[in-house]
Amino acid sequence: MTIESIITEWSYRLPKGYPTQPRDYKLLYDVILEMTDLTPLEAQYIVNRAQGVNEDVITEQSGPVGPANAFDDAASFEIYVIENFAVKGQQIIGLPGMYDAIMNHENSDELIKLIIGPTQMRLATGAFPIRGIYNVLFKIIESTIKIPNGNQSELWLAIAFGGQVKGAVAGQSGIEADVQIGTDTVSLKNYEDITFDFGSLSSDGVQLLNSFLEMGKLLTGQEINKTKGRGSINQVLDFLDNEKIESEIRQIIKLGNTSDITFLKNIAIQLEQFYTLDDNLDTMIHAFCRIVDDMISEKINSVGWWGMIVKGNTTLFLESSAELAPLLMCRNDRLSPAIANFHQNKLFVRGSQLNTKVTAQKTQD
Can you list the residues of the chain whose pLDDT is less than 50? Predict the structure, then answer.
């Protein structure tokens, strides 16, 4: 890798082909890290030299490239944020107000450096308290920004982790990812409490879930609550989980297949759905749990990471899908304690029950 190739790539990325503003040197920093094996500190050293900064003041603690006045005005700030932190077509409303709030803040220099400087935070499983300058930025974004069909915290995550907001791109459907960070996708939830909406179930999943609940009501006489709560569903599973009930269900299927009574035939057809799956599960409980597990797996693994922000203590919880999905799967043929309900055919998860190292406080079921 030659200096000429680095300069060529840098020039290619500059709007005019050569640096005209302090923030243009942020691109040089990015190019150096992308095209060489230099450390961030070494890259910073080169950029500072290019800007004419005295090398004697370059230390491990040197801040990211660019002073607080790196933006000429609110318009240039808006262009920068849209170009760097939003996928093409994604709207971010309120950026001029965000710029004014930053420039009027006593820590404006740090805030601008956080926005234009090299990203410090990386995706990793854990609990990340949003403190210091990150908290200041979080509050400014919360009070000034609106993202159509999304949450303003998506912009904070994009800035903090060097990603792009993508959750509400016009014309696209079925998008689970709210933020794209490199090659990783992140779905972000931001709530007052710790029950998180993980989104709608598939149409096939909804149909199967509702069919099971109808069968449970018919066989047990128990009314399933409207929220389709985990407790109510597990009560049905408890009732069905014995050999006598299973034997009776099989008898109903047998009678329905040989009877001329339409009512029995219809019941038998519906019950048989849970006995004819490809994996040949031999009980309704196993079949239902498999269905739920498949739905959860499909939902959770639609993105690479799940981020959950609890507003009460402004803490970001990060979980990879690979670690999160098993925690939501059925346990001993019962719905996981981490599942709250399937209200309005959406999967709601109890964050307090996610038994991983990201959990601040684990409650007992």
Answer: 53-68, 170-174, 277-281, 355-365
Helix, strand, or coil (residue 187) = strand
Nearest CA to 328 among 342, 315, 312?
342
Beta-strand relationship, 195-200 and 305-310: unpaired
Phi first, then psi, for residue 83 (nearest 5°) are -70, -30
pTM, two decimal places: 0.66
Q: CA 164 to CA 176: how far, in whole Å?
A: 14
Q: 30, 36 in Cβ contact below 8 A?
A: no
Cα separation, 348 vs 350, whole angstroms: 7
Contact 129, 314 (CB under 8 A): yes
DSSP result, 331-355: BTTB--TTEEE-GGGEEEEEGGG--
For residue 190, what are the β-bridge partners?
309
Instruction: Tell how far CA 9 is from the center of its chain.
Output: 33
Take residue 52 and report the two structure tokens written for it.
């004419």
State residue 281 phi and psi, 5-degree precision. -65, 140
Residue 320 CA from chain centroid, whole number:
9
Total Cβ atoms within 10 A of residue 120 = 12
Q: How far apart are CA 93 and CA 318, in angstroms?
A: 26
pLDDT tens profile 253-268:
888 888 888 888 888 8
Tens-digit pLDDT profile for residues 144-160: 999 987 889 999 999 99
Q: How far apart are CA 249 and CA 270, in angstroms?
A: 11
Phi-psi region of 104 (alpha: psi -120 to 50; beta: other; left: phi over 0): alpha
**Residues 210 and 329: beta-carbon distance below 8 Å:** no
Q: What is the DSSP letter of 91?
A: -
